[in-house]
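Minutes, project check-in
Item: structure for the 359-residue chain
Input as provided by the requester:
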Amino acid sequence: MYRVMFVHKSPLGAFGRADMHLCSSCLSRMGHEVYFVAKSGGESDELKADGVRVLTVSDSKSWVKEICRLVYELKPDIAHVFLYSGAGLVSFFARKYSPTTRFVLDVRSPLLRTGLWRMLHRVKNVFEPRFFDGVAAHGIESGWTQLGKRDDLVLLPPGVDSSLVTAERPVQKAADDVVKMIYIGSLSRLRSLRVMLESIVQAHCRSLFEVDIYGDGDDKSFLERYISESSCRDSVHFKGVVDRRTLFQLMPAYDVGLAYIPSGMYEFAPALKSMEYLACGVPVLATDTCGNRMFIENGVNGELSKGDVESFAAAIVRICNQEKLNGYKDNVAQSVDEYDWMRIIKDRLLPFYDGLIGG
């Protein structure tokens, strides 16, 4: 069994960080001694319930000094650091306090910068991995956007905690039933959800469906106003933010999961929402990005579409065909079996650790 210290320079529960937390929770459930170090101010109840020992660092203290102190006191086998600006300082300074500790740098997001800032971050990120013993990423191409092309990048894909899927999946629907669709995720302008909503409005006059949207972000007010002034005002509902456990209880009741991911900066990012829909038995209508193609096989467990308004609207109309939709439901759950977090840890993470410790 390993003693692992995860390091994340943000408050626990920050939006979009579920993948990091699930990795540590599942590793703890397997019997490993797991610590999670984060900035103070977040919620840690779920991690603690899974046996993870949560340690927080206040803004009044030096982050690097505190990490060095914890490495010295805990002597972890692995210090698993999620990428942030300055992450390389941890491995550079802390390793002298525990020579046997192996340091891992983990990339969980593509580079979400444009213009000059994107170029400067790429230059800076070339140096971040220099003093780490191993480097992993949620997707190889996505990791390249941050660190540049590297032959030593290890794939550690995002996963689903299948223990959260507790609700029974509904029976197949009749041809005249209203199709229930769900979108979960950030309502940020960077996500270009205005295009998705335009597609929904365009498709609504040709199909019978409702859409529930879960999430928050800086574009929420505009999106709500756009829908309130459209013909879909009674069919599109903004549900706000709910906790992940509740989402997994709600998702099996839906017929289609919407995974509108814009190309560009998000092209290579694995779509966690697509995997979560599938794990709950929900076929997916997704944009045709590299990240979505990791999980969606077009015409088997869902449909892939171009990201423009007309194409996505036409895809909504197609997937609302109940005969086709019922056929997809037979294939969805097994399509993500290999992305259960317990299996990822057993098949990928632990062999990765073994190689570092043995080396």
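Outcome recorded: The radius of gyration is 21 Å.
No further action items on this chain.
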